[in-house]
Here is the input.
Amino acid sequence: MDATNGTTDQTFEAFARHDFYRAVNEHLVDRTLQIRERVEEPVRRALDLACGTGAVTQLLADRVRQLREPVEIIGVDPSTAALEKARKLVGSAAAFVVGTAQAFSDIVTGVDIILFCNAIHLLPQKEPVVAEAHRALNPGGVLGFNTSFYDGCYAPGTERFYKLWMLRSLQMLKRETGLRPDRNRVEAMNWLTPEDYRVMLERNGFQIEEMKTEVANMTCESWQDISQYSEFANGALPGIPVDVATPILKRSVAEAFDELQIETLPRNWLQVVARAV
Ligand SMILES: C[S@@+](CC[C@H](N)C(=O)[O-])C[C@H]1O[C@@H](n2cnc3c(N)ncnc32)[C@H](O)[C@@H]1O
Here is the structure.
């Protein structure tokens, strides 16, 4: 519950506190900075695109504090509720601006690095965002992005977990509320392959510097935390109000973990660093 207003917090904040999540993002931030360091010019401006509640912005601020020259950090996200939390978390180390990944190069330009974490899969059209990132970056600038929703994100042997979780949640939903998700209400999520991302980046003036899979071991608690994030709950049980969907998803994922007798579930994160050429 959100202690300030007594409602359930529907942002990504609770999930973003998990150690495995911090680790995958930290690795991406570090690799993006290291690859940018090959350019002789210092990093002056950095953008955290789709910064949400500021978890990655905070990582970035910690890292750039160690650089010789000061770095201006800007976080962009369309959610004012998330930005409010980001401001509280990061303080004056970054400026936060309302904006979208489809149109930010008029608000933020001349950047040396862009981090775009855990968000590209949310966008039905990904190519305009890649083009926009290229416009906003200085020559030699570096884009680092990651996603755990792509064609290849299910670690081998884990498909049965997702099937069981959905089965248990649908059974629970029907039994307790009589409701069924409305599959017509959800836009099919467009999960690209790593190769699709490679081709799209190269087509838009980027050179791939690194593309790899990192395995994160997700706990039951982390799935419960992501179940309260409105975008996730809407995707898992479309058409069901979030305050109904979230408790069902939380209880059914605990059942799935119990039935399969697992402590953690491996999930693949695609980590990509590309340079504007
Ligand atoms: C899963 S959160 C990731 C937050 C943060 N980047 C992280 O890795 O912890 C996804 C974020 O994408 C934002 N988002 C959704 N649609 C967007 C869009 N069209 N442009 C930019 N950000 C968007 C959401 O508001 C949310 O804050």
User: Anything to note?
Assistant: The pocket of S-adenosylmethionine is lined by residues 12, 16, 25, 50-52, 55-56, 77-79, 82, 100-102, 117-119, 122-123 (CB under 6 Å). Confidence is low (pLDDT under 50) at residues 1-7. The first strand starts at residue 45 and ends at 49. The CA atoms of residues 20 and 216 lie 6 Å apart.
